[in-house]
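Example: Sugar ABC transporter permease.
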Amino acid sequence: MTDIATRATRVVPATGGRRRQNGGGPRAGVIVAFVIPFFLPFVLFYLVPIAYAVWQSFLVVRRTGGQYGTSYTTFGGFEQYVQVFQNTEFWASIGRIGLFGIVQVPVMLFVALIMALLLDTPLLKLKSFFRIAAFMPYAVPGVIAAIMWSFLYSPQLSPVVDLLKAIGLQPDFLGPGAVLWSAANVSTWLWTGYNMLIMFSALQAIPQELYEAAKLDGASNWAIAWKIKVPIIAPSIILTTVFSIIGTLQLYAEPAVLRQISSNISSTFTPNMLAYAVASGNNYQQAAAISVVIAIITFVLSFGFMRLTSKRAGL
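Written out as structure tokens, the predicted fold is:
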């Protein structure tokens, strides 16, 4: 019996070791099988187009033989980038989008925060209804939303314009001084509910014991909201701000649709519209350079804001 037990103790570890060694292969195969469906499209439809755009931005088109000669594409270094930085329309579009973001993003996030705090308070009734109603505009595609609002902005079609004229006002939502904010209003209407839902989800994760302890100390609902809830959900506010910065620099659909009814929006109104207009003129290399510059600006602003606010918030 002793010999059998000794043999068993010698055999079992070896067998277990072989099982673990042989089991590594199937497990690795399972991991690969789960990763490939994400990794392959990510490489093909994300990394490859980015790499191709970067490569195109370093190319230039040369022409030989005069106006009716032949053209060829060659490596031009940073020539396209020099032209982008010398393009006054590019900087004008950056200025518009910067003004847009400085005003629209804080207003949108402040409204989203107020809505999230109201939905989180126990005093509000019909929370499910208001949550769905606030989130519903996000379900509307941006182009459709811009078309809907364009009817409300149009002097010939808008009942809002007719109502304001009836009380003695002369609104011009598509005028040169208002059209940027008309586009900002569409973006705010679209994305406030989305940002509100992110903040509201963070509020739902806060333990109720904190509120109970604060109430025992005599804190009011106002103090609980601004001194407990808002500091705790600061990471969510930072996240929504980063998303908003990225979305602002990608602005295209709203001004592109409003351009159909307003002469105050040019084809170079935003950086993305400028890139599209340049590409429509068959200058794909400069359009690629504009896109790369927009991507770099987006990365610098969003990453810089995230690092700055994370340090201040102690995250």
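The radius of gyration is 28 Å.
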